[in-house]
């Protein structure tokens, strides 16, 4: 079972992804559409919607930070899921209520669940660089033990470690 905060982040990602793909209407419009499809909004839904709204409101600034930190990557080349994971994490870092290491770990978890096999390392690298630039992280990287901007070979990863049932538990609104 997932923690309520983790579920809220997953909901926020789904809301923000739908927001971007539907031409960027208001977050309230997206939430209303999702509620019509799946029934009434689940308990605790507000945190996910609030986080998505904060990420949408700061999109221009967050995209600039992402582009600056993503060495050798144009923002247009970053997939929508990864881009939105990064926006959500930056919104949460700006909020300042959650420790930066937790924000980064949760963003990496979302990348494992919803994005490609190389996405977790990319998300970690970008968020690490942005967090250092903001001054919220110092010293070596929490997850890799390396100094910022240092490249180390990644360990081989399996392509998928979740069963279909585990994906449905995380990704479907019925568990919200």
Give keywords.
single chain; 8 helices; 62% helix
Describe this structure in words.
With 176 residues, the protein is mainly α. The protein has helices spanning 4-21, 27-38, 45-57, 59-69, 80-95, 100-114, 119-134, 164-171. The protein is globular and about 45 Å long. The termini are close together. Residues 144-168 have low confidence and may be disordered.
What integer value in Å does the Rg equal?
16 Å
Shape: globular
> What is the subunit organization of this protein?
single chain
Unreliable sequence segments: 144-168
Structural class: mainly alpha
The biggest sheet, with number of strands, parallel, antiparallel or mixed sense and barrel status, is: none
Number of helices: 8
Distance between the amino and carboxyl termini: 11 Å
Helicity range: 55-70%
In summary, what is this structure?
With 176 residues, this protein is mainly α. It has 8 helices and no strands.
What's the arrangement of secondary structure elements?
Blueprint: H1 4-21, H2 27-38, H3 45-57, H4 59-69, H5 80-95, H6 100-114, H7 119-134, H8 164-171
Helix pairs in contact: 1-2, 1-3, 1-5, 3-5, 4-5, 4-7, 5-6, 5-7, 6-7
């Amino acid at each position: 079972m997932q923690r309520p905060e983790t579920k809220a982040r997953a909901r926020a990602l789904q809301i923000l992804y739908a927001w971007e793909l539907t031409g960027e209407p208001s977050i309230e419009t997206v939430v209303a559409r999702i509620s019509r499809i799946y029934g009434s909004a689940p308990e605790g839904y507000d945190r996910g919607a609030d986080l998505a709204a904060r990420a949408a409101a700061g999109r221009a600034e967050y995209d600039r930070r992402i582009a600056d930190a993503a060495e050798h990557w144009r923002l247009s080349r970053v997939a929508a899921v990864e881009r939105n994971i990064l926006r959500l994490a930056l919104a949460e870092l700006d909020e300042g209520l959650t420790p930066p290491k937790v924000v980064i770990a949760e963003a990496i978890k979302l990348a494992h669940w919803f994005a490609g096999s190389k996405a977790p390392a990319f998300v970690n690298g970008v968020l690490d660089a942005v967090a250092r630039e903001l001054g919220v992280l110092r010293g070596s990287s929490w997850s890799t033990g390396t100094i910022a901007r240092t490249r180390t070979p990644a360990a081989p990863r399996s392509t998928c470690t979740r069963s279909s049932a585990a994906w449905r538990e995380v990704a479907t609104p019925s568990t919200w």
